[in-house]
What we know:
By secondary structure, the chain is α+β, with helices and mostly antiparallel strands. The radius of gyration is 14 Å and the shape is globular. The strands form two sheets. The protein has a four-stranded antiparallel β-sheet with strand order 2-3-1-4. α1 packs across α2 (55-72). The chain has two helices and six strands. The longest helix is centred in the middle third of the chain and has 18 residues, at 55-72. The protein has a single domain, classed as Alpha-Beta Plaits.
Amino acid sequence: MAIAMLLEFPGGNISQYDRVLGRLNLKGHTYKGGIFHVAGPTDDGVRVVDVWESQAAFDSFFSDKLQAALEAEGMEAPQIKTWEVHNTLTPIGTATVKASSTPTSY
Length: 106
């Protein structure tokens, strides 16, 4: 089942986010199992919205890559809210997101 995630990094800043991203060495792509990623500053930190093929895919990313990169840049683990993806809309129409695939309409 695909999941959407809201990750809040209170006290973090965009410079830290950029350094974490550099440490992840993803070369402009999501990690295996990642479908979508967007990030930006808030009044009190950094907010990220991700879509993953499954909770297990995110958990793998967190333990394999993200946790160490956050620690190296002095960022706390994020506050996370997660929900099941029911539907997505795109400029070219509705996309079906399945647990074992990327969106089918992209």
